[in-house]
C-alpha cells in the first residue's frame, strides 16, 4: 500500500484586535512657509496630548497603538471601548486647545493658524505594540484616511470662520452606527450631518458623518444659495426652519400721505369699547349713525376708545359723547 500523505488544508487565521483610529490633518499645511511647518507639526502632537489629558484620557494617549506623525498630521489607535470618548469629550476639548494655542502661533506669524480636519474609523487592525512591522495597516485605516481627505470635510472647514472653528471631524459609517446611534456618545444625533465621500481616483464611495464641535460661518465665504420660493414650496429643504412672516413696519399716522391706506371700520354695537379702526379718513365718512357710539373722533379717524352713551355723527360735530381719555404722547407714535 502506498504511503498516506497528509492533505493540505486551509487554515483560518486569528482576526487582529479591533481598534478605533483617530487621524488628524493640518489645513493648508503645504501652503505654510517651510520655516513654520516644523512648528505646526510639533504643535499638532502637543495639542492632541493636551486634549487627551483634558478629557481624562491621559493613560489612553500614553498607551496608544501605532502612534505616528504624518508630517502634516498625526494618528493613533485606541481600544474600542474608548471610541465614544474620542468623539466626546475629546473633539470639543481639542477644539478648545487649538483655540487657546492660536495667540502663541500668531505671535510667531500673524497669518499662522493651526486648524485641523479629524477622522475616526473602526475595525480590525494589527497591533503588536511595535514588535512587528505592519501595525495599523488595514481597511479601517484606509477608510479613516479616505474620510480625512474627503472634499466634504475640507469644505466644512473652509466654510467656517477661521477665528472660531479650529476643528471639523468626520466619522465612518461604522463609527457613527456603533457609537452615536448606539447611544454611547453625549452629543445629540442631530449635530452629525451625513455626507457622501466620493473619491473616484481611490475607487472609494461611502457614507460619512460630519461633526463640528464649534460651528460657525466664514464671513468671507459665499452667501448661501437661495432655493427660491418654488423650491421652498416643493419642500426641497426639509431641514430649514419655517421663515417668519415679514414684519410690517409701524407707520406714523401723521407722516402718511392724505387719503392713502386702507380704511377698516368695525361693526359698532351698544356700549362697545373699541368701535372704529381706520387707516386714514378725511371727511369721507359722513352722517353715519351707530347705536351706542364711541369716544372722540375728529376730522381724521384713527382708533377711538371710550365709554359712549349716545349716538355719534362721524364727520361733523359730535353729540352726546363722553370726552376721550387723554393720550400719552408716546402712544401717538
UniProtKB/TrEMBL annotation:
Residues 229-240 have a biased composition (Low complexity). Residues 212-270, 308-333 are annotated as: Disordered. This is Uncharacterized protein.
